[in-house]
Write a structure and sequence with these properties.
single chain, 2 domains, 16 helices, binds nicotinamide-adenine-dinucleotide
Length: 496
């Protein structure tokens, strides 16, 4: 097969049909208010389509339909094997529509087409499949009980799950919530980020094609302070699963307290340290991973390895290796399959990233990049950027930038490295490079992070839990542990 080039994707983009209406009770509908918002391609500034701007009235309708579907048992009490079959079909449909979904995601977010084709979309399909396969392999418990008694401990779906997700991996974040929540038998009302509603809408359409009954999954495009807040405050939502900033995560805790004490699960921000010790056996592999860990997905990754802690004796050599990789990043048109870094999500976020770079210039040494790049009509591109001479008190070492900005900090001892690594409000991920197995365990144990990667960066799979400590949130996505979020334990005592 000839490699499909930029022209192919540009032609496909021109022919693409964009989803634009909300999905409520199995039907695509306009927002009750009739309001819409522009969905913009950040790489060109072009308006792709206008999308329904849902608010509290739409949330009320979607939650009511979700409740009806849940109580009817049409999904919640369906045999595990039947729910499994529907979700397996959905995984297949995602795969069958890979090109279309990848293109929607790339146009909506500015991510390189190579990443959405080979990462986001197959990743989403794999996650749906994983949870589909788990459905008929989960056993409940029988607890020890006195003679003449039987104590059953069963996991039950919670009811109506609200999911509010960000724009950096729109389909994958939606699937990380929806797949386990649906697999467990819940009904779900999903609010994608206003910057990136398209793949969630198409995903829900495919879910219905796969046989998901109407009402079980609703998708409400809209803004945080309207649709997101209404879901958080709703009296008939049993659980709210959120991925996004720590600031908004805290609001969901308040919403729960102000309403029905719904369960809230938060996957929030990060400022993840990557520790490279001088005994690291393969500095080239470490440099590859360090660069990928911050420049992948334009640095718009919650677990991005944004603080690189390097033992002083190798700091200069290692910084040069990482800079070499940064210079090899191909920044540009996301529709070009050779592009490895695309546009930031929008100009507003680009300005935020550039403001952090300005703060960095005032406090540390700018070793590489630091500039906005204009591509065609879009001003939403930022060069891969590296700062050296960073102190952990500097703004760029403390705040989550969510852009391609690496802060390099030297250290002298293991103790100091651990102290710097943990000196952050976040605790999502951390990495350690060392040839010393004892050190790997010693340091790994003391790093306050939900995932510690040794001699790799930001490792993970559907089979392993993902989430944070401290202000990175609580609860875990992925793995069987995700079911802890979306089910409640019920004990039934039987006396005989
Ligand atoms: P954000 O918090 O601004 O928005 C996330 C979602 O919350 C969006 O759907 C948005 O509409 C909604 N929202 C915004 N304000 C709201 C409000 N007042 N009430 C209710 N809902 C509201 O985050 P973002 O800028 O879209 O995404 C970037 C953030 O997401 C980063 O902090 C990143 O670290 C985090 N993130 C975390 C993970 C993780 O798993 N830990 C994964 C990806 C992204």
């Amino acid at each position: 097969m000839t490699e499909r080039n930029r022209d192919h994707w540009a032609a496909e983009a021109r022919a693409l049909a964009f989803p634009r209406r909300a999905l409520v009770d199995g039907r695509f509908v306009d927002a009750v208010s009739g309001a819409t918002f522009d969905c913009v391609d950040p790489a060109t500034g072009r308006v792709l389509t206008t999308v329904a701007a849902c608010d509290a009235a739409d949330v009320d309708l979607a939650v009511a339909a979700a409740r009806r579907s849940f109580e009817s048992g049409v999904w919640s009490r369906r045999a595990p094997g039947e729910r499994k079959a529907v979700l397996l079909r959905l995984a297949e449909l995602i795969r069958a529509h890979r090109d279309e979904l990848a293109l929607l995601e790339t146009l909506d977010t500015g991510k390189p087409i190579a990443d959405t084709l080979h990462g986001d979309i197959p990743g989403a399909a794999a996650t749906v499949q994983w949870y589909a396969e788990a459905i008929d392999k989960l056993y409940d418990e029988i607890a020890p009980a006195p003679p003449g008694h039987l104590a059953l401990v069963r996991r039950e779906p919670l009811g109506v799950v609200g999911a509010v997700v960000p724009w950096n991996f729109p389909l994958e974040m939606a699937v990380w919530k929806c797949a386990p929540a649906l697999a467990a038998g819940n009904s779900v009302v999903l609010k994608p980020a206003e910057q990136s509603p398209l793949t969630a809408l198409r995903f829900a359409e495919l879910a219905h094609e796969a046989g998901l009954p109407p009402g079980v999954l609703a998708v409400l495009p809209g803004f945080g302070p309207t649709a997101g807040k209404a879901l958080g405050l709703h009296m008939d939502v049993d659980c709210l699963a959120f991925t996004g900033s720590t600031e908004v995560g805290k609001l969901f805790l308040i919403y729960a307290g102000q309403s029905n004490l719904k369960q809230v699960w938060l996957e929030c921000g990060g400022k993840s340290p990557n520790l490279v010790f001088a005994d690291c056996r393969d500095l080239d592999a470490a440099a590859d991973a360090a660069a990928h860990g911050i420049f992948f997905n334009q640095g718009e990754v919650c677990s991005a390895a944004s603080r690189l802690l390097v033992e002083r004796s190798i700091a200069e050599v290692f910084t040069a290796k990482v800079a070499e990789r940064a210079r090899a990043v191909r920044l540009g048109d996301p529709l070009d399959p050779a592009t490895t870094m695309g546009a930031m999500i929008d100009e507003r976020h680009t300005d935020r990233v550039l403001a952090h770079i300005e703060a960095g210039r005032r406090q540390a040494h700018l070793a590489l990049g630091g500039n906005r790049v204009v591509v065609g009509d879009s001003r939403a591109f930022v060069e891969p950027t590296i700062f050296t001479g960073v102190d952990n008190d500097h703004v760029i070492a403390r705040e989550e930038i969510f852009g391609p900005v690496l802060a390099i900090l030297p250290f002298d001892t293991e103790e100091e490295a651990i102290a710097i690594a943990n000196d952050t409000i976040y605790g999502l991920a951390a990495s350690v490079w060392t040839a010393d197995l004892g050190r790997a365990h010693r340091v790994g144990e003391r790093l306050k992070a939900g995932t510690v990667s040794v001699n790799c960066v930001d490792a993970g799979s559907t089979a392993t839990p993902f989430g944070g400590f401290k202000q990175s949130g609580f609860g875990r996505d992925l793995s069987l542990h995700a079911f802890d979020k979306f089910t409640g334990l019920k004990t039934t005592w039987i006396s005989y």
